[in-house]
Amino acid sequence: MIPNPSPVQLKFLGGAGTVTGSKILVRTERHSVLIDCGMFQGLKQLRLLNWEKLPLNYDELDAVILTHGHLDHCGALPMLVKNGYDGPIYATLPTRDVTEVILRDSARIQEEDALQANEGGYSRHHPARPQYTEEDVDRTMPLFETHDDNEWVIINEDFKFCFRKSGHILGSAMVELVCQGRKFVFSGDLGRRRPLLMEPPYLVKDADYVVLESTYGDRRHSEKSPYEELAEVVNLTYEKGGVLVIPSFAVERAQELLLLLNTLKQDKSIPPLPLYLDTPMGIDVTDLYLHHRDWHSLTDEECETMMRDVHVIRNFEHSLHVLDKKGPKIVIAGSGMVTGGRVLYYLEQLLGNSQNTILLVGFQAPGTRGNLLRSGSDELKIHGLYYKVHAEVRQIGSLSAHGDQADLLWWLEHFKKAPQQVFLNHGETQASEALRLKITDTKGWPVTIAQMGVTYDV
Ligand SMILES: [Zn+2]
């Protein structure tokens, strides 16, 4: 221990009181690092924050440490670079690769949306402009410095850190950070006890301060098997002769769905319906699974099953022809919360017909179209127009890349002694509050719900 260690400050610049925009600034008297640099999504008041310059001195930021490649954790990196950051971005190798796919897609979507909004005249901003472009992503990627898990990395005299697998998506890692003789653990997004494609999360034994995500802090995932839940929805759509559209995150969820659906077909639990994967990003990420074999738990046979009989659609022109072919089919398309991407084009054509089914399989943040569908909205605004929702909307709760309340408590169970403080972040307020109560009641540990913009001295 360092005698009289100087104070360390934690400041949550996003991912507090919400599940998006994750950014945690850790500061000593001389240095600072940023854990994650995510994009805000969902409610407009959150999305507007994406345009604001971060309240930090870009010259004094020594490093960014990235837990994983989801947009809400990495999506603001090009903005950071645009605003002058040129230091290292530390990540695991698969996270670097996933991040590149995600950021390029995000830049493309923003450029396309701005173009369409200007052409269609439905933007309130004149002219509408993207937050960043692929050129900004080109400037961001060379800053990446990759490290294996369990490898200690010394950043400077104040900070050293180590990645530990977190069981959430390909490459995802929690961060153990040692600073001024104190150990901090940032969970990033924490996977379930028994993830479908990953090893379970690394079990941390001790830490002085824990920053724990709380996306599902107030919920238990369905006990049902995802195979059964999925088969039921596929068979229902088949009987109606409709199309099943599954809006999906490109990373992890799309691969899980491919594996589950192809296994069900193989077992003859569902009919051999044509299966389309229409998310260019999902296709690229699926390739990454085949490259980074140390980072998932699939056998070669399962990898092969995952990709069997999948019609992969790279080209937007082909997307428009998928629905020309008659008969029931399954389409997996991005984005997962229906905030953008190809899924919008399918919904424009399919929402109005009750034969079709929209299946929601992941977290739907407030303010997203996915959340509106989930809560039974009877119309949906897409590309400036309103569409009536007559298609059946279903959701299944057994697929999640996040641990539920029981998983989060199970992970904490492995600490040999109480941390000095647990901070809960990455959750809607009621979810964080439910988890705070549960930890306080069962363990008696001090728990604080992280507030956006507040500095905590530890
Ligand atoms: Zn995530």
TrEMBL record:
Domain of life: Bacteria
Domain Beta-Casp, residue spans: 254-373
SUPFAM superfamilies cross-referenced by the UniProt entry: Metallo-hydrolase/oxidoreductase (SSF56281)
InterPro entries: Beta_Casp (IPR022712), MBL (IPR050698), Metallo-B-lactamas (IPR001279), RibonucZ/Hydroxyglut_hydro (IPR036866), RMMBL (IPR011108)
Coiled coil: none
GO MF terms held by the record: hydrolase activity; RNA endonuclease activity
Pfam hit, one: Lactamase_B
Residue ranges of every copy of the Metallo-beta-lactamase domain listed in the record: 20-238
Keywords tagged on the record: Hydrolase
PANTHER family (UniProt xref): CLEAVAGE AND POLYADENYLATION SPECIFICITY FACTOR FAMILY MEMBER, INTEGRATOR COMPLEX SUBUNIT 11
Name of the protein in question: MBL fold metallo-hydrolase
